[in-house]
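Support case: pyridoxal-5'-phosphate complex. Customer-provided input:
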Amino acid sequence: MSKTAASRKSPKKESAQKVRPGQPAASETAAPPLSFDTLCIQGGYDPKVSEPRILPIVQSTTYKYDDIDHVNRIMTLQAFGHKYSRTSNPTVAGFEARMNLLEGGTATVATASGQAANLLAIITIVRPGDHILAASQLYGGTFTLLNSTLKKFGIETTFFDPNASRADVEKLVRPETRLIFGETLGNPGLAILDFDKLAHIAKKHGIPFIVDNSLATAWLCQPFKHGANIVTYSATKYVDGHATSIGGAVIDGGNFDWANGKFPDFTTPDPTYNGVIYTQNFPQTAFLVKARAQFLRDFGGCLSPLNAFLFNLGLETLHLRMPRHGENALALARFLAKHSKVAWVNYPGLDATGKKRIEKYFRHKNGSGILTFGIKGDLDSVRRFVKRLRVAALVVHVADARTGVLHPASSTHAQMNEKQLLAAGITPDMIRVSVGTEDVADLIADFDQALAAA
Ligand SMILES: *Cc1c(COP(=O)(O)O)cnc(C)c1O
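Agent response - structure generated as follows:
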């Protein structure tokens, strides 16, 4: 189990933790504390003399040992070491270490997709008969996972209006509730999560608070600082930033008491590892070690070394791309808000609540790169507008350097009924724009000419 990154609380305050290719994560180094921007570029990988300056792609399933006792210690979680790339790989470990530093977690595991990340995080905690509380403004795939697929396995989810009062959300907690789930920026309603409210409920009821940070990223928001216990990612989005690869990550905040009596799988011996007890053997990283050792092993949703390499490269410009995404999105939102053919515009920070939450929870005054708006007219107006775009393209994706648009009601959220659509913050006329890093003047001109056709 990768100690990939044991031991970080805050990336600002503590020294960088780095991983050498083919080596277990270094425990502590004496490096001086590094800022967020520097960790984006150098965090997680510490080459020695004559080693590659760039995190190498270790395209190997397999690792070599000298004696069977060493292999036995690795296989029974008594020692760390790569054994087989389904559960760890040096390139993947480098990406995990960097993500861990940027979020300020205690350990991180990379996954094959964002869906795999959310499934891994959830399934590490719940059993059949358990109950989940989730914000109703969620990525469509996550909604389906909770509302349909996990239900078939006996795990029920209640969805709450993220803007409901603390008392109204708390009323939904049951004795068998085992976690609260939300997204930093709800997709595509774009509500900023009320961290304090949900963290308070989670803490009071002794259940973990999971936050999907894909659309904000650690550059904008570090959920562990606001009471989250576990952070998940679709790395496919801004971490990659260039629409090249599917992948995800789960990060352990190391700040939840799994021995509070509600989570027996953490406190009783795991027979598949000779009786390891996660909370005893791994007090700081019980959740992450269990996730990797049990469910990454069994379900196999691991990240490939090549995708880890590309994500790691993406992170090297995260601090440069995110400000531009936000500036472009704000400028386009302001342009659209004044346009005669636009019915409404939604962008985080344009309304008073959003502005307050950005002040409170975000590291920068920036609302990320996603906005939504409605065109005056009917579905045919939407059709004509989308067809006419020249710089922006119709894509089922967000968080690319290239601007993309999508009509959620007919695509990502087509599985929802009208009531569910409204609860998710989606109207039939909604167009979601993932604003890229192009010259915003070109984007505004493009939207202007396409709106003329609508
Ligand atoms: C895209 C996305 C996911 C799913 O991630 P994949 O990498 O596509 O599997 C989950 N959550 C959010 C917020 C997303 O935007």
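Residues 1-28 have pLDDT under 50 and may be disordered.

Case will auto-close in a few days if no follow-up is received.
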